[in-house]
Structure formats: C-alpha cells, structure tokens
Specification:
heterodimer, A: 513 residues, alpha/beta, 8-stranded mixed β-sheet, 6-stranded antiparallel barrel, 15 helices, 16 strands, elongated, B: 177 residues, alpha+beta, 4-stranded mixed β-sheet, 8 helices
Chain lengths: 513, 177
C-alpha cells in the first residue's frame, strides 16, 4: 500500500476539477407514457435503435424491444420505482452488453455482469454485446475433439464433441442438472472453461450448485450467470445471451474451449412469453410469441467450433429442457430438439427403477459427436447400443415365460450386466481409460458370472487393479486414444488375472448361494 | 397521438393551409375549447351520446356563431356527427404540432432556475433559429429551482443540458472513477 499525502489527493482532485470541461451536453430524451409490470411505454426518441439501452431518471436502464409508430415498448432491467408518467428517458446509443474476459472466471454474476458473490467488483473494461451474430459457414470447422462428460453412458453411446449442441431433456427430478454439473466437474485439467447459466431457478439451488462446484475445485475454471425465479423476466431473458457473450469472448479472443450450460430453456421461453405478452405482441401456440423459435435458434447457433484461420476455440452448448409428463412433442421441446445436434433423454421410470443416470438410450442420440469420439472407446462401445436394444426387446418378451433357451438367457444376463455397468453415482466422473477398461470388460462378456449387485464394485476394483498392474496399457489409451494389439493383450490378461484373484475370497460365498 | 387525432388534425391543417390561417385557427379553437371546459353543463351535454346530434349542433351554433370562423363551427359539427367530440383537445394539440412543422416554427422549452431576462431570451431564440434554421422560435419558459443555475433547452426529442445540477452530477461521476 503506497501512502499518499492528503495534499496529493486533493491536488489530483483539483486538477480534475480544473480540467473538467464545462460544456452543455446535448441528449435525446423521451417521456414515459405508461409504466408497470416491468414494461415502460415511451413517447418520443424517434431515432431510437432496436434493442438500444435507455436510461431512466431513477438510474435504471431498459431495453427498447418494440419500436412502434407512436411509442416505444421498453423492458426495464431494474426496479420501476421512481419512474412515473412523464419521467424523462435518455438514449445511450448502445445496445445491451456485459463485461467479459478471464477476470470473470470463478465468479457468480447476474445477467448484467454484476457480481453476486460478494467478492468485489469485476475489474474489466472489456464488454461485449449480449446479442451477436453467430459465426458463418466459413468461420467454422466440424467437431474433431471430444468433450468428455465423464459419464459412461454418454461418452460411450452419445458422445459429445467440442462445439456441439447437445440437449438434455427430461421431466423434473430426473437428473438433468446432475449430468451438466458432472460434466463441468469432469473438465478439471481439460483446459475447458465452463459457464453455468441458471435461468429462473431457485436461489437455494444455485447456491448449492456453487457449493458443489467449489468443493470439487470446479469454480477455478467456471463462471456462473445467475437469474433466480424472483428476478425480473427481463433478466431471465437476458441470462443465456449474457452467458453466451462471455463464452464468445473466451472463444474468439482467448481461443479457448468453452462449455456452456443453459439451465433451463423452458423457463427462458416462459420468461420471454411473459415479456412478449406484456409488450402486447400477439400470442401464438401455447401463448408463446411467434419468434420463440428464433429466440432459441439464434442463441444455440452461437455455439461453434472455430476454424483454424480464426485461431480455433469452441463453444459447446448443453441446453436443458424440462418436459411435462414426458411430453416431447410440446412446443418448446420440439423446437429445441430440432435446433440441437442431438439430445439426451432422461426418464422418470428409469430414475425410480434405480437406473441412474436415467438415460433412455433408445431416444437419445448425438448427431455429430461420433466424429470426435475417442477411437478406442468408439470401437469398444460399438455393440453396446444394439445389445441394449435387443435386451430391452427380450426383457419384455421374457416376462411372459420362464422357459428360455441358453442363448436368450445369456443375452438377458449380459443385458442386466450392461445396464448395471452404465449406472454411475453423481459427482464421480470416469476418465477415458477407466471408461475403456469397464466397457471392454462388459462388452467382452467378462461380467456374466458376476452378480448384478456386485457389478459396480467389480468395475471399480478392476480399474484400480489394471491401473496399478498395467500402467503402460493405461498410458497408451490416455495418450493416443487408440487400442494397440499389445495393449489389448495386456488388458485381456489383466482382466483374467483380476477375476482369478477375486474368485478366491468370494468362492465360498458363491457356492453358499 | 392516435390515428384519429392525426386524421382530423391533418384535414384541419389542409383547410388552414389554403388561406394561411394557422394561427387564427389554433387561437379560436383553443378559445372554443376553453369555453366548453369552463362550462361543465355544456361539456357534458356535448359529450352525451344520448342527446341527438342535431340538438348539439344547434347549441354549438348558438354559442359560437359570430365568435369563431364558420369553418371551425363546421369542424365542431363534424366532430359531433362522427361522435368524436371527446378528441377535441388532442386534435387541437396535434394541429398545433403539425402547423408548427409546416411553418417551420421551432418550439423550445427553456427550463431555468431563475427567471430569464429579455436579452438572454433573445439570444437563445437567435441561436436556436440559426442552429435549426427555423423561421420562428416559440419559447416556453419553465422554472425549476432544483437545477441550481444555468439552463436546459428541450427541442423536440433533444435536450441540451447546461445546468449546474447536471454539471455537478457529471463531476461526481468523474471523481468517483
């Protein structure tokens, strides 16, 4: 701390006062005709731009959303206290923007970029408009690098590439947010910046998410944009765009890989509907305004993998949609499904039958991620989807009779083991090599003689054993992502060895059964 | 301003334009409106939808004949026929705005903390006239003690702020940075 003499400070102030220009400033002003419900109607301001920020007398700003013949429909970004009929409104000649840059990493901010975590102001002069044109065809590149979620079921069958948009969809309480949070936690050491945008959520939920991320050391590379259910719909509407602007800065200027989670876009659509109805835009299907598709498409189009000419970098988007009673054909779910590059569909029944994460493999798909999947995983996971599909078919059939031939019986046993393998606890992401070992053992029918309840413990112990005994094989997978014949041999040998060892203490228990 | 007001004001304007009667039209209409407003019973009578329009017209004739121009009496009659009498004041205001635009008259609102003397007023008028190339400047004076000093000009959507209050505000912002 440098000590300043009092006269130094006052001399600086005096200089400032002396150098202060005395000029009358010219401003454009309009007047409030009507205010209420977070909407103000303004008369005047003939040259106002669309989406321009306007400044009210009480210091609150607003965004011009409707430019009409006689008036402007403006949504307020703060309280309407102190604004009354006839209040003056000034133009700012700017559209809405948020502070961006790496200083935001580790912070919790509101959709205007103001800190909420009580850790001081955000010192940056860099700002970025919240609405920005998505990169065009030439600026992009197809996805070629995987974004590991650390969740076996996803990384094996619904792989996500960096720059992809993968929808997480399901009813309430099916673990949608859990998947997103696990993915964020798994990005530790992966050089991926994560942005979690909470839209219209309970403040307590957001607080617990921050807590979880902090405990797992994930806040060191994360930004949280929070708009709670008690925030104005305007802020909820702005939140994903603000988060995306922060991501864009990291992608365009920092050439970083960014993961952004929009939790969730159903509430975003509801917030936008509220605004649109108050602005008297005509309601359409389910009372959403006509441009609700564009609302989400323009947001999700901003996710991209930049070309090498632009220096690379990517934004991977994980939008979340909450369905009602599993209804995928409602308006917003169908819209967002058609915009994204695939979806992860979570089901209540699966969740309560204990299959967690409750991913419905049949309805989940990743349209582009396959190109970026780790080759070794891709190879070993290839039969997984079809095996599970056959199992499901057989399982329904097998409920009716008990006499099953041997091959059918084996298929059912194998299917049970596969499903058990895909179960995974929250906050316990698996690395690529662990996933590979587990998948290899499961798909090569090494689990047939293991009781279903022991499968997860077996997998866990197997990983520890192989990592301990065959570090070379693990290293090959980790560094190249390919399965060399030598590594394959080592793995096979390792699994046999492990099973033999395991059989000794367990032998008595098994014969007793 | 709604479409109704603009339509009636525009037709009134065309009428005035032919004989260059902007000023008298406005003055006399304003007078008529004042008379109606001052006389509560007359006002409610004219606005009452149940009263036959021919009766209203008779009253209008009786009150205003000889006091205002025949065109304006006709205009009031049209408003009665079309059931638009309640729009009289907004139409007059709209007419005024349109007429000012037509004649290139600049309306300037001068807000000051203290009364402005004639010399200053002439200077403001001259400057505004030159800057906006107006044929005439009409000044509306307002006083607002909270400005502390200096003046604030409002011209249409533009506000030119040279008040002590805004300068102090600006100073506060600069010092806080």
């Amino acid at each position: 701390m440098i000590h300043l003499k009092p006269e130094e400070i006052s001399s600086i102030i005096r200089q400032q006062i002396e150098g202060y220009e005395i000029t009358a400033k010219s401003e454009e002003i309009g007047h409030v005709l009507q205010v209420g419900d977070g909407i103000a109607r303004i008369y005047g301001l003939k040259d106002c731009m669309y989406n321009e920020l306007l400044l009210f007398e009480n210091g609150v700003s607003g965004m011009a959303m409707n430019l009409e013949e006689d008036s402007i429909g403006c949504v307020l970004l703060g309280t309407d206290e102190g604004i009354s009929e006839g209040s003056e409104v000034k133009r700012t000649y700017q559209t809405a923007s948020v502070p961006v840059g790496e200083v935001l990493i580790g912070r919790v901010v509101n959709p205007l970029g103001e800190p909420l975590d009580g850790r001081g102001e955000i010192r940056t002069n860099k700002r970025r408009p919240v609405e920005f044109l998505a990169p065009g065809v030439i600026d992009r590149k197809s996805v070629n690098k995987p974004l590991q979620t650390g969740i076996l079921a996803i990384d094996s069958m619904i792989p996500i590439g960096r720059g992809q948009r993968e929808l997480i969809i399901g009813d309430r309480q099916t673990g949608k947010t859990a998947i997103a949070i696990d993915t964020i936690i798994n990005q530790k050491g992966e050089d991926v910046i994560c942005i979690y945008v909470a839209i219209g959520q309970k403040a307590s939920n957001i607080a617990s998410i921050v807590d979880v991320l902090e405990r797992h050391g994930a806040m060191d590379y994360s930004i949280i944009v929070s708009s709670t259910a008690s925030d104005m719909s305007t802020l909820q509407y702005l939140a994903p765009y603000a988060g995306c602007a922060m991501a864009e800065d990291l992608m365009y200027d920092g050439h970083k890989d960014v993961l952004i989670v929009y939790d969730d876009l159903s509430k975003h659509a509801v917030a936008y509907r509220e605004m649109a109805l108050l602005l008297r835009r005509p309601p359409g299907r389910e009372a959403y305004p006509g441009d609700v598709f564009y609302l989400h498409s323009r947001l999700l189009e901003r996710a991209a993998k930049l070309s090498d000419e632009l220096g690379g970098g990517s934004i991977t988007a994980l939008p979340i949609i909450e369905t009602l009673a599993g209804d995928l054909s409602a308006y917003i779910p169908t819209n967002v499904i058609s915009i994204t590059d695939g979806q992860i569909y979570l089901e209540t029944e699966l969740f309560f039958s204990g299959q967690r994460p409750a991913i419905n493999i049949g309805l989940s798909v990743s349209r582009v991620g396959g190109a970026a999947q780790v080759p070794a995983i891709k190879k070993v996971a290839a039969p997984l989807r079809i095996n599970l599909a056959q199992y499901r078919e057989l399982a329904i059939f097998a409920q009716f009779g008990s006499d099953l031939d041997k091959s059918t019986q084996e298929m059912l046993t194998q299917g049970d083991r596969l499903l058990a393998t895909l179960k995974q606890a929250q906050y316990s992401p698996l690395s690529i090599e662990e996933q590979f070992i587990i998948l290899y053992a499961a798909t090569r029918k090494c689990l047939l003689d293991i009781p279903v309840k022991d499968v997860s413990q077996f997998n866990k112990d197997l990983c520890i054993f192989i990592k301990d005994k065959y570090p070379e094989m693990v290293e090959t997978i980790k560094s190249t992502g390919e399965l060399t014949p030598r590594a394959r041999e080592m793995l096979r040998q390792g699994i046999d060895e492990f099973k033999k060892r395991r059989a000794i203490p367990l032998g008595d228990d098994l014969s007793a059964e | 301003m709604s479409l109704v007001e603009r339509r009636y004001a525009a037709s009134l304007l065309e009428l005035a334009e032919d004989r260059d009667l902007y000023e008298p039209f406005y003055r006399e209409l304003k007078m008529a409106s004042n008379i109606i407003h001052k006389n509560e019973r007359l006002e409610s009578f004219l606005l009452d939808l149940q009263v036959d329009s021919s009766k209203k017209k008779k009253v209008i004739f009786a009150v205003f004949n000889g006091n205002i121009m025949q065109e304006l009496i006709n205009f009031l009659n049209v408003l009665i026929d079309k059931n638009r009498f309640e729009y009289l004041d907004p139409i007059i205001e709209e007419f005024r705005i349109m007429a000012d635009q037509k004649q290139n008259i600049l309306n300037v609102t001068v807000v000051s903390a203290f009364p402005i003397d004639e010399l200053q007023l002439q200077e403001i008028k001259r400057k505004c006239k030159n800057k906006y190339m107006a044929s005439k400047v009409r000044v509306h004076l307002q006083e607002d003690k909270s400005l502390l000093g200096g003046i604030k000009l409002k011209i249409g959507d533009t506000m030119i702020d040279g008040t002590v209050k805004s300068r102090l505000e600006e100073l506060r912002k600069t010092l806080l940075q």
